[in-house]
Amino acid sequence: MLKFAFAFLPVFFPVLFTPCNTDQPPESNKAMLSISNDGPYVLYRNNHVIIKQVDDENGFKKVKADSVTLSRKESLELNIRTDEAGKTFAVRLKTRLENEKAEYAIAGKIFVVSDIEGNFRAFRRLLQGNGVIDTAFNWTFGNGHLVLTGDFFDRGSQVTEVLWLIYSLEEKAKAAGGYVHFVLGNHEIMNLNGDLRYVHPKYFENAQLMSETYMTLYSDSSELGRWLRTKNVAEKVGDILFIHAGISSPVNKAQIGVEKINELVRPFYADSSYNFPDSTVGLLYSDLGPFWYRGYYSGNPVAPLTQIDSTLSFYGAKHISTGHTVISDTIRVLHNGKLINTDVHHARGHSEGLLVEGGKYYRVDALGQKFLMLE
């Protein structure tokens, strides 16, 4: 197995790092990594796999890079940093990437998290505190399903590490009979199609230092970019419809099935022209589409219960679980459980996940404390 410690081809850049990340308040008993660290990124060029990353060394940035032939891809093992100094986890590259299914049978237990926005620390603590992973980043959730409903990009300073953790957990979950669902939100789509207004500044600087453009890091010539293009914007697990933003009244009227929604939008994830082939695709990419719509929680008027009932009826679901719009410091259940909002201010310390187990719905915190919301 070829492990990359990146002790080769060093290129030094005298760029001072920012000493702390205001989105991630430091824990008093644990050292935090410099937010300047970034990567690794895996790129494909001329039948080679190229690995690049940026390290902070005593306040200076250092670009490290290497490449191997494509035939040696399966021997690679990446070492991914976490939010804790000296703590890493290993990632093996997938042998193949396939588009995700849109509908799944009911799962015995489901853990739902949304809108992490590059906050690795909050993500790690939620997963470890609720028995989804252990301290070595191994899957410990058995045949349970982990559902991530979008906006894991932007604002925070450890987006890359968050993505590699999700990537690595997919195979570990499958091996245990479980599953990881990564449903894309508007911020994933924005990063693919070039709307970069919320990207943490360090990523532009680091891309330049690596002699890359930011867009290349998530293009279809990169491992993370190819992987993201296999993901859906809507999925149904049992009787729960998982979607980042929601189903608007116009989308209801169009009566587009879950599988069809994904089929229509996937070819345009990286499209920045907005010249869509027909009005249906245009609707799905509009403010009324499934990853932008905010009408469940804001607007005049707010979406009526009849609209939600119409969605549930068409999709054969009992609950809709969304992120996208913060309405409280805690996860909220509305309309007698028909609508569940999981978007909370992780960066402000109000970090929660949704646990569905034994027919009961709990909001849970990073300590694993459970608060019953619905049964």
List the helices and strands and how they pair.
Elements: E1 2-3, E2 11-13, E3 38-45, E4 48-57, E5 60-69, E6 76-81, E7 88-92, E8 103-104, E9 109-113, H1 120-129, E10 145-149, H2 159-175, E11 179-183, H3 186-193, H4 201-209, H5 223-228, E12 234-237, E13 240-243, H6 249-254, H7 258-265, H8 279-284, H9 305-315, E14 319-322, E15 332-334, E16 339-341, E17 352-357, E18 360-365, E19 370-374
Parallel strand pairs: 1-6, 8-12, 9-10, 10-11, 13-14, 14-16
Antiparallel strand pairs: 2-5, 3-4, 4-5, 6-7, 9-17, 12-13, 15-16, 17-18, 18-19
Could you give a quick summary of the protein structure above?
With 375 residues, this protein is of the alpha/beta class.
CATH level 4 superfamily of the largest domain:
Metallo-dependent phosphatases
Main beta sheet strand tally, sense and closure:
6 strands, mixed
Spell the H/E element sequence.
Answer: EEEEEEEEEHEHEHHHEEHHHHEEEEEE
Strand elements, count: 19
- Strand composition percent: 25-35%
- CATH level-3 fold name of the largest domain: Purple Acid Phosphatase, chain A, domain 2
> What is the CATH-assigned architecture of the largest domain?
4-Layer Sandwich
Count of DSSP-assigned helices: 9
Give the neighbour order of strands across the main sheet.
8-12-13-14-16-15
The helix fraction, in percent, is 10-25%
Mean of residue pLDDT values: 91
Computed over alpha carbons, the radius of gyration is 20 Å
Kindly give the count of domains.
2
CATH uppermost class of the largest domain: Alpha Beta
Oligomer: single chain
